[in-house]
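User: Assemble these into one structure.

Assistant: Restating your components, then the assembled model:
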Amino acid sequence: MTSTTDREAGQVGDVIELSLPVAADLLVVVRLTAAAVASRAEFNVEDIEDLRLAVDELCLPLVRSAPEGRLVLRFIRTADSVEITACVDGPEASGGPDAASHDPEDALSAQILDALVDEHGWDGTGSRCWLRKRRSSLPV
Amino acid sequence: MDCAVRPLGPSRERFAAFATTGDPALRDQLVTEHLGLAHQLARRFVNRGEALDDLVQVASVALIKSVDRFDPERGVEFSTFATRTIIGELKRHFRDKGWAVRAPRRIQELYLELGHIISSLSQELGRSPTVAELASATGASEEAVLEALEAGQGYRASSIDAGGEGQPEGLSARLGSEDKRFDGVDDRSVLAPALGLLPEREQTILRLRFVDGLTQSEIASQIGVSQMHVSRLLTASLAKLRQAFDDQR
């Protein structure tokens, strides 16, 4: 279905958004999406596996802090990386850097992210977290 | 975030002492103090068909390695270093077992296995099985099953110029040409010429599915192939038609 020209034209700048109820058992959808996006970015299988683990850790603090509302994710494929941002859209939305530094589980998530991705953090208002993982090397 | 597991100051000094002395008692102490981290990380991998005890053991061995190899001079916190090492070992453990880091070959195998299981479960249940049922039958996670099914559909529509079954010169060479077998087909349909170029079996499947309204399983038993094969052929034929359609516009 994808011709060579299609692929070249679509090489940079896929933006994919997901909105789903806040629920840990729905993270499978997020993981599969992350894996598919990373695969389009030509990540190797190990990097894809890392990203799969990482999205869990990205979302878990949000899921823990906001039992209601919707988890909104945005996947961006750039020339050599995948960026994912996550936030909760809803009345209960909280979380953020303060919550993260107090909850040991969240701190562990941050530490796991350190091991899996190149960069990650919370944005200024503390309601949105993000990660970026670069492709480790181009397939030969 | 680095203080998640242990306060830094005193442990840093002890790591420095251990790095110079290699004192086994100090080593034990450092390992014991960080067992909680090994445990927590092992728990992160628990929903993948491995017993927690085994994972904790893998993580603990990795923790010991981390204590032995940690260089406090490098300015990284021990917990950061250990997390990286332990996750690496846990991933390796699953990879050696053939899971989690799902190498393409593993997905292939699972896909083939699914083919058999889908037909036997379909017969057993009198209906098409769910992903959850397939997961429990294969011992794989639902996620892995979904991926394997997706990989099976991963028919990358070969370029329209590539030759197909018994059509060495490729589809594009004949697109738009007359096809005697389809004289009766409404020639205003933009799809008709392309349809005629599909292998006969794919034409039959398309007709059974979309004209006669049979399910994939019904088609499968009628033409004597697996349901998954029907699914794959349908995806492939539709992709070819879509391509031909796009090219004509």
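The domain at 11-97 of chain B is CATH 1.20.120.1810 (Four Helix Bundle (Hemerythrin (Met), subunit A)).
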